[in-house]
Amino acid sequence: MLESLRRIVQEVNNARDLEQALSIIVRRVKQAVGADVCSVYLNDYDNHRHILHATDGLRLDAVGRVRLELGRGLIGQVSERAEPINLDDAANHPRYECITDTGEERYHGFLGAPIIQNRKVLGVLVLRQRQRRHFGEDEVTFVMTLASQLAGAITFARTSGELVRLQDDGIPQRFLPGLAASPGIGIGHAVVVYPPADLDAVPDRRPEDLDAEAEEFRRAVREVAGDLDRFASRTQVHLRVEDMALFDAWRLMLESDTLIDGTLSRIRAGNWAPGALRETIADHARVFDAMDDAYLRERASDVRDLGRCILMHLQNRDTTPIQYASHTILVGEEISAMQIADVPREKLAGVVSTTGSGSSHVGILARGMGVPAAMGVSDLPVSRVEGREMVVDGYRGRVYVSPGPAVRSEYQRLAADDAALTSELQALSHLPADTTDGYTIPLYLNTGLVSESRPLGIEESAGVGLYRTELPFIVRDSFPSEAAQMSNYRHVLELFAPRPVTIRTLDIGGDKPLPYFPMHEANPFLGWRGIRITLDHPEIFLTQVRAVLRAAIGLDNLQLLLPMVSTVGEVDDALLLIQRAHDELLEEGYQVRMPPVGVMIEVPAAVYQAEALARRVDFLSVGTNDLTQYLLAVDRNNPHVAKLYNEYHPAVLRALLQILTGARLHGKEVSVCGEMAGDPLATFLLLGMGVHSLSMGAGSLLRVKKVIRSISRARAREVLKVALQCEDAGSVRRLLLDALETVGLGGLVRPGR
């Protein structure tokens, strides 16, 4: 039966459409189980009925015509209970209803299995037997497994409009859910892209000439660097100068010691260039894959993209130029930045990927280019959408395939509204973030891309509220020297001077190991990370602090931030080390100054010690992403529990208030630097609480500024007061949506205004 299951699953996955998939299921399941009938009923919730969609054994003319009221009969009971029902004689069951149109009155044995996707019952797979029969446990498991295989096909059919054509009764079209990566509305036709070379398929092979093999690898790297330069040259017409930093980041990763030296050492050890490259890329990507931080984890895709590009040149493969439609929706399972750059900007209407998130380089590039994007659209069958019309809702991460006239018309209207909103936001550039009653709340930038020559949002921000220092450590084969670190920090400090730059000390360990400093932990979320590892290795911490202090000489715009603090003892120890580095540098003749030092509030323990922490440092900065995860015990990147992650949870709001209360007792300022800071909805809450500044990604600066300039601080306090009376996150969100609509800004968080 296991072999039958494998073959049927393969056939279903290769089916060209839902009708064929249903036909395969009913025919093959009937044969495998030895039943007399196999049928599929699908639930039509909009019209409150179960519809017979396929059968092998009942009258074929009943397909599409037999429709049960939702909840009626044994089909209804299977759907309600969301679990299988196995009966020797269905006719004796109180819920049994005989449907003469199908000819089923001759049958007794009954097995019904629910077809479930994301907790919703989409339909029922039914087996019937003329004689009395109780189906075996293996048979029930077999049928349940095949029912689950149908769920994805049914979901796609609803979205693409295929199910509408099968039913021919005009039920509303569905969308495929994903992650919002770049706001906007994109309407066009799908062009599917795929990796140009398959690294995983490369075997190990001993080369005849090691020196020649090494030179071939170096040649391929040079050619990829040339490709990057050409793509950057083509794209710079449509990007701001600061957006082009993404190509600098790719160049640095391409030329990193880990990639070059790692591959060359494997070649010298006796593997040919493609095999050595495969192992180097796998090792490097594995480090990023293991990270909890979504931004850093997305770098694994960049590493693999580079590996594929190098392999393509090693294999001397010339790809046929892709013909792009006038309104191209670029679709793929893992799209690279270079594939986006290959599309003429005037033809690129949207980007859709089945993997990734808004923090991937693809998402960042899409935002920089102003292209709507949805990532992580996992239900999209990429192989079946080439040439289909698509709508990308970048606000909500929704994708519509083959939209009907009503959906298309509505999104065309929303796209026009969106264009007007974008034009309106640009008018806010360089204006202060002042409320209507004269209160100013500075908006800072979260940054830290490798080799950013000019970070996104540099002109618009009041400075840097969070500069991540991890990536320059990760792309190397050893800890960077004090001089190398100082050069990097000096660049960003000079770039923003005299505006303040808050540099977070090294936040590695546990979920973010370095390739040359491996760690293996059973539970990295609660492991050796952040301040814990740097205090255990003061030589690492002191080197970094010395580099930062030296970089700030003559600029005096530096602020230091300590990550993952959970005890006051950690702060005391860190402050002593910072003072030690400061004193040592003075003794060595460097004219350094002691910078303001702050603490990141990311764990619940720090919330309850906010007052004690504020007594010791100069400011507090709240990392709402980690704080929310720890408070709610939810990994937001885990699809099974991601729905539970919500920054509007009453516990999160009360934690923020407690932090502010503790800081206020000692006159210390509080900044918010998590995703909540860049959410226009949350602006009401944070402004009402009295947060002193917000730090966010570049794409959120103007949207948040628009909210601030449209409301008073008094109004924000009123909204906060009502929000604190709510008992669940959904109620808080609805309140904030109403508040945003009241000032005419609903279009900031959804298409249309």
From TrEMBL:
Q: Output the Gene Ontology cellular-component terms.
A: cytoplasm
Checking InterPro entries in the record gives: GAF, GAF-like_dom_sf, PEP-util_enz_mobile_dom, PEP-utilizing_PTS_enzyme, PEP_util_C, PEP_util_CS, Phosphohistidine_dom_sf, PTS_EI-like
Q: Which UniProt keywords apply?
A: Cytoplasm, Kinase, Magnesium, Metal-binding, Phosphotransferase system, Pyruvate, Sugar transport, Transferase, Transport
The Swiss-Prot or TrEMBL record lists the needed cofactor(s) as: Mg(2+)
Organism domain of life: Bacteria
UniProt-recorded Gene Ontology molecular function terms: kinase activity; metal ion binding; phosphoenolpyruvate-protein phosphotransferase activity
Which family, according to the similarity comment? Belongs to the PEP-utilizing enzyme family.
- Name it: phosphoenolpyruvate--protein phosphotransferase
**Species for this entry:** Allochromatium palmeri
